[in-house]
Amino acid sequence: MIQWLAWFYCANFLFIVALSHWPGLTDAQGKLMGLFAIDPVDDIFHLISGLLAGIVAFKSHGWSIAYFKYAGIPYAIDAITGIGFGVEFLNGDVFTEGLSRPDLSIHRIFVNTPHILIPATMLWIGYWLAKRVEPAS
After folding, report:
1. pLDDT at residue 47, as a whole number
2. Is the pTM of this model over 0.85?
3. CA-to-CA distance for 12 and 133, rounded, in angstroms?
4. Conformational region of residue 28, where left means phi above 0, alpha means psi within -120 to 50, and beta covers everything else
């Protein structure tokens, strides 16, 4: 089951990369669906995350568990810096732009929802679910 979830994450991350280049879904400011500013660095992280998910899903149950345990951490940091300080961690904005004032507005939470859900589910799979399911035989 954990390996199937890794395949699911592989497909989702690769879909995000494709979606961010889909004609008509990015506005004049470069925001996907008018909400998400996805730059080339974001594309690289999504692509690497998807490819790694595919590799670990192919490799083994144990590798898949490790992926969910550790790949969720940088996305969790990104969610915290995105909601709390309005800058992204994964693309390096936190280092180049610095932190801004905390803003817990609905808009900021909504825009950061993907990076809240991604690490929450990844860490749940890696630390909770993995203990309750057996490897596929």
Report:
1. 95
2. no
3. 22
4. alpha
